[in-house]
Specification:
The protein is α/β, with parallel strands linked by helices. Helices cover 37% and strands 22% of the residues. It is globular, with a radius of gyration of 17 Å.
Length: 268
């Protein structure tokens, strides 16, 4: 099963995150990627230099005909930026794809610190997309912002995941990269209970730009290809870890991952 993934997210001109990372990831895992661009960012490994906004109705116009013509086996959202874009995306999903799995990556802040979700949009994200999510994939700051809880270890990550399930998400993967320690632990909560814990060594590198986008798109591809959630997450975790290890070493800041390692291993 090829797995068709429709991605609604922002563009990263540096190619490390956003739509560009999503397309690379879905393709590298054997899926078929389709896109609805929600914003254009002028961005490098050193940060975001500017954001060009896309009208919300044009975001919807990108999504609706794709769903009607090509169809989708999973939908993934990334940077949505504004409340009206979130509303438009949610409206299209409710009208055209209510039964299609939805992976929501609640992108709030870029690696370099730039805001990718305006404050007024957070409540709309919580009310419109969170209840529709098959799986929500927040990092620690995002989990704290959405749940109102402090996340400091795996136990508090699990509690934040349970709170977000109570808020409507069917499952939550709380990513532990922001926590201290030599190992990174991600906690998967399904239907309010911890169903899996994914742990691995922290890789000492600055080349981690786009890891969140890449992980969410990896999960979406797995769901689109018929994997159950835990197996989709397990494969995604392995793919991202190897992509970090095989990062091409580009840029002067937080460099991009080696998304193509499944196709052509990097030997530099």
């Amino acid at each position: 099963m090829i797995g068709r993934v429709l991605i609604a997210a922002g563009s990263d001109s540096g190619g490390g995150a956003g739509i560009q990372a999503d397309i690379k990831t879905v393709t590298a895992l054997g899926g078929y990627a389709m896109t609805a661009v929600t914003a254009l960012t002028a961005q490098t490994t050193q940060g975001v230099q500017g954001i060009y906004e896309i009208p919300a109705d044009f975001v919807a116009l990108q999504m609706r005909p794709v769903l009607q013509d090509l169809g989708a086996d999973c939908i993934k959202t990334g940077m949505l930026y504004r409340a009206d874009i979130i509303t438009s995306v949610a409206d299209v999903i409710e009208a055209e794809a209510p039964d299609i799995p939805l992976v929501v990556d609640p992108v709030m802040v870029a690696k370099g610190g730039a805001s990718l979700l305006v404050d007024a949009a957070v409540e709309v994200l919580k009310s419109r997309l969170l209840p529709a999510a098959t799986v929500l994939t927040p990092n620690v700051p995002e989990a704290e912002a959405l749940s109102g809880l402090r996340v400091r270890d795996t136990d508090t990550a699990a509690e934040a995941g349970r709170a977000l399930c109570r808020a409507g998400a069917r499952a939550v993967l709380v990513k532990g990269g922001h926590m201290e320690g030599d190992r990174v632990t991600d906690v998967l909560v399904e239907d309010g209970e911890v169903s899996a814990v994914f742990e691995g060594p922290r890789i000492d590198t600055r080349h981690t730009h786009g890891t969140g986008c890449t992980l969410a798109s990896s999960i979406a591809t797995g769901l689109a290809q018929g994997l159950v959630l835990r197996e989709a997450v397990r494969r995604a975790e392995a793919y991202v870890a190897e992509a970090i290890r095989q990062a091409p070493g580009l840029g002067q800041g937080h460099g991009p991952l080696g998304h193509g390692h499944t196709v052509c291993p990097f030997e530099g």
